Amino acid sequence: MIHRRYFNFSKFLSRLFRAGIFVSSLFLFLNINFVSHLIPFSIHNLQSTIYVSAQVTGSDVAAKKAQLQAQLADLEAQIATQEAILKDQQGKSESLSRDIKILDAQIAKAKLDIKARTISIENLTDSIGDKQVTITKLTTKLGKEKESLAQLLRKTNEIDSYSTVEVVLSNENLSSFFQDLDSFDSIKNELNKSFEVITDTKVKTEDEKTQLEDKRDEETKLKNLQILEQKRIQQQEAEKAAILKASKGIESLYQNVLKQQTLSAAQIRAQLFSLQGSAAIPFEKALDYANFASQKTGVRPAVILGIIAEESNLGQNVGTGNWLVDMKAPRDTEPFKAITAALGVNPDTVPVSKKPWYGYGGAMGPAQFIPSTWVLYAGYVKNSDGSWSYNSSKDRIRSLTGSGLPSNPWDARDAFMACGILMKENGAAARTYGAERLAALRYLAGWGNASKSAYAFYGDDVMALANKYQKMIDILSGK
What confidence tens digit (pLDDT) does each residue in 99-128 have? Predict the structure, then answer.
């Protein structure tokens, strides 16, 4: 039966041609190359095919994940036990027994944290592997579909190049032609639909894979930081062992050791507050910067000192990186070019943190700001082409320090002020233990991740350092 849509005479002639010249070859082409390929490939079957890789050895994967989850739950219960011990002991008066229990609990918790993170990373790595298999299959399928569609388009173009005379001379049966032509159109439509589904699913799967990789980088970074934390605790344990040896386990002797450890103001002034990536400065000078930043932001000086000290010691290779190798492009490389240009320094020679094995580097100066964060406080405006330009009127750090130059992340005074501003925005100006600790966690992980238990050690570290520096500040101020 001839459809109404074919009554146009010129189109009719064209279809006559297709019947005579192309229908037999089209029929063969469709049967050999497409029909067997596309008939089972309905949209429903396509979606089943797309997700088949996610179900490979489904029972084995589910069993492994269940086992990992059970291990993780057990570790989290043990961590909670150690946290309870710490909380209980920290509420007691300083004593030999109490301090040993605190130290033991801290070391045990750090080891458990590392084990928990290892399990999380393993779980995420498996998920990423599944996604990669899916993407590989989709990419192969997508290539085949593109080639099939291209062949159809080439054939269609070839048909349209024939003349009307050639069409009229055709002797093929019109009824069978129209039937084949409708099949031809139907297959093209189905092919386009499958092409769209595969493309959409491939994009979504790649997005999911990227999110999982980001999560894995985050978890791996935590593991590395926790290893460093454990090393610091083990160093403290060695120091404590020396004290135990000196006190011979006698409480009165231990209390005498504690008194002798109390530093005088003169001894404090002689201490060096080492800042990796910048010249070492005396504690008294660092305290001047912290006090100044505190006056402008309301954040406690000891907390600012604690953040700077923690940030300077988090990476093993701080200050030895190269921006072209270690920074994330273009997120940080473009702002970095603007920062160094405004400061008139060579981007190839200024120190930045080296790229660690778990992610990107490029952090700058004592406060360890990455370029894409520094520009938000130091007066840079993003241009339409993705580059950044310096605008002194928007330089918040400079407006508080009173400097006549662009804010410099490698300058200790500017770094302390930037740290104070960010900590104020994070809530530290409330000056309560909870607010300061939460602000420190936000400094490390952002607001979205600050409440995660995995980051707790950083907040604890900063507050322990802040407590240490507060004692020094109290001595210096005669308290």
Answer: 888 888 878 887 887 788 778 777 777 777
Encode pLDDT of 204-229 as tens digits. Answer: 777 777 777 777 676 666 666 667 66
DSSP secondary-structure letter at 381? E
Closest CA to 235 of 108, 109, 117, 107: 107
Helices and strands: H and E segment counts in the chain: 19, 4
Peptide bond preceding 366 in cis form (omega within 30 of 0) = no
β-pair partners for 388: 382
pTM summary value: 0.62
Tokens of 349: 């020679």
pLDDT tier, 142 (very low <50, low <70, confident <90, very high otherwise) = confident
**Are the beta carbons of 329 and 370 closer than 8 angstroms?**
no
Determine if residue 130 is left, alpha or beta; phi over 0 gives left, psi from -120 to 50 gives alpha, anything else beta: alpha
What whole-number distance in Å separates Cα of residue 12 and Cα of residue 14?
Answer: 5
Residue 268 CB neighbours (<10 A): 18
> What is the third-level CATH fold of 263-476?
Lysozyme (1.10.530)
Per-residue pLDDT for 3 more than 80?
A: no
Tokens 């130091």 sit on residue: 378
Phi then psi dihedrals of residue 434, to 5 deg: -60, -45
Q: Which residues pair with 282 in a beta bridge?
A: 272
Could you tell me the CA-to-CA distances from 336 to 394, 415, 419 in Å, in that order?
17, 16, 18
Residues of the chain with CATH 1.10.530: 263-476
| Cβ-contact 78, 112 below 8 angstroms | yes
Residue 33's pLDDT is what? 40
Q: Which amino acid is located at 361 in the chain?
A: G
In whole angstroms, give the CA distance from residue 182 to residue 164.
21
Beta strands 388-395; 272-273: pairing state: unpaired
Question: How far, in Å, CA of 418 to CA of 107, rounded?
Answer: 33
| Residue type at position 293 | A
Dist CA 317 CA 345 (whole Å): 21
Contact of 15 with 178, CB cutoff 8 Å:
yes
User: Phi and psi of 395, rounded to 5°?
Assistant: -80, 95
